Amino acid sequence: MTTIPASGRPFELEYPQKVADFTRYEDAQAAVDFLADEKFPVENLMIVGTGLRSVERVIGRKTWGSVIAGGAISGLGMGLFVGLMLFLFSGGLASPWVMLLVGLLMGAIIGVLSAVLAYSLSGGKRDFDSMRQTVASSYELLCEHKRAEEARQVLARRPGASQIA
Known about the structure:
alpha+beta; 165 residues
């Protein structure tokens, strides 16, 4: 059962104290999992990413072909929705497959047109595709002050505990 703190603020601890530092989120998660396995009241814990930075990975050059393909693919989702609405409100006048196909085609065409328009208006300012992610350089395991020392003692029994910074 998940409980929300009595304060009604799920992302705040009353008097947090640092229990451990980790360079990888997976390590902080494993520490919390260990504490949970040891029956520590984990509702007193919080993992906080620090040293946030934005990382953008360039994945390719944007061309007219990639713009058109991307627009068509993004339009298919809306087209599926439109096709289902056409079928539901057509009163059975046409085959569901015809309505679905019409919707998909309409969605793809609208997606292509909007993508082409947006790309042509960009003036070549962003001729590449990329993915963005916000990452932390380290992760702090914080604990409510009343249980912080207990958490440190339990974590000290964890295999590989000397790796905790």
